[in-house]
Amino acid sequence: MEQHRFRRPAMLTPEQAEAIVGEEDPAARSEIAHTTAQAMVSGGREGAEDPELVERLIALVDTEGLEAVAEIWSQSPPDTLPGALWRLYLLREWGRRDPDTIAERFRLGANRAEVAGVVAGVADPVGPEEIRRMLDAVLSGVYRGDLGVALERAGSFLRVLATGSALDADWVETHDADTAQILTRRAGSLLDTAAELEEAASLHRAGRLT
Predict the structure, then answer these.
(1) pTM, rounded to two decimals
(2) Cα distance between residue 106 and residue 123, in whole Å
């Protein structure tokens, strides 16, 4: 398999970065994932009064690239801190790449999933910029606020999107069954991820998200 070189995140030592690039040992990969996740959250919270530091942490994917972050965290289970962080960063990246579609689906879903929409806390009227701001606010909450609340907001956000995708599938099905099936599967995947984030929030509150 081709190995990719990348710039190391600020919380990663050169030795850890080299290990990620070259090793395939699951135990070593897991240790690095947990170490970097803990270091980032701890470092972010200690420097939470420094807006530039928090902004750099929020924009980790922008500066380091999605592949670099994936190398560190993407194989971590959802009931771990690195697994939860990976899902939050991936959600933010999706919001940056396709905010128009997300805004449209959120508007559709918010009429049915009203409670989840309130918890998600997207500003009204919902548009692409409001989606971007909400997802940045979720990541900011990891470092400035309550991690459990941040995870719950992301989970509720995905529940609204899942509802919107399911509604879209119902409307599309009359003239495009294949696309409707894709949207239905996507809605199911969004619900699965929402449940994973909500479970991570519960684990965090119980002191067991590591």
Answers:
(1) 0.85
(2) 11
